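Q: Got a minute? One more chain.
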Amino acid sequence: MINRLRLDKYSALYLWAFFMVLFTILRPDTFLTTTSFKLVTQENVINGVLALAFLIPLATGTYDLSIGLNMSACLVVINWIAKNTDWPQGVGLLLGLLVCLVAGTISGFVVVKLKVDSFIATLGMSQILTAFVLFVSPQTISGELSDAYKNVGAAPFLGLQRFVWYLLILAIIVWYVLEHTPLGRQMFATGGNPEAARLTGIRTDRLRWGSLIASALVAGFAGVVYSWKVGTYGQSIGPGYLFPAVAAVFFGASQLKGRPNVWGAMIALYALAWGVKGLNLIYTTQQWIRPLFEGVSLLAAVALASRNQIIKIRKRKTPIGQQVLEDLGVAPKDAAGA
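A: Always. Here it is, folded:
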């Protein structure tokens, strides 16, 4: 019975259901309400966008720890352009994304050409982007973005602000590319075993480089969403969103497919978000609740993902190189035992 329930693959859904029942009992008047649903859904859109940004390079076995600062860089450019020029605010949006494009390109060059570990390379890029953000504007910028600009993303649509639907569209695009295109299969093959993937003809370096560029652009879009949602800039905004996004991706990697995947990350993100919401309703003045909950969740998620990976490796009967071919759909599965 336990095996049929697949606690390892669907633990986030069970955890989500547990939170909904528990906090509905403890706080029946404030937890499971229309207002709470809207708040939790809308407040976690930026985390969701950054989770997708982190997930894209992770599919190739590459880490991007600069997503929070890419968000900040795009946001500061948008606000600086609005404050100091008469240009259309859409120009600031495009220039902000251009900065992220450059940052992602440089990160990819350092990782692919200079052979620096992606963890270290993107950590260094985070510091460079921090310097850029401080150089452009060391002060908070507020009240410079027009209502017309913010309504592009913040105006209501079907009961929710538009950027919620933008996240859904982005998630569907990333899911389709990763799960239903040759490009996505090649990315996962690269992440599973880069050397075996390279020997099958996959351009692994190009995929890793491109994934870092895509990650930076998606992270920049998180900055765009923040500009629609809040409209202000502050130095510490982006990095504060990094941890929940990473926690969601790692937790989600143990869900559904047993590897990094879009819907696992989204389910994990909102399961944790509802848990935080319930705890905040009980401990209304305790600011340590959220970081403690997210920290424990990340440790548990990584431990679960590591355990599942070890089990998969031990059970694997197909040689890794052959498995890469099968994942790409270019080798018959009955050839594995040949």
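A: Strands lie at 156-157, 160-161.
Q: Perfect, thanks.
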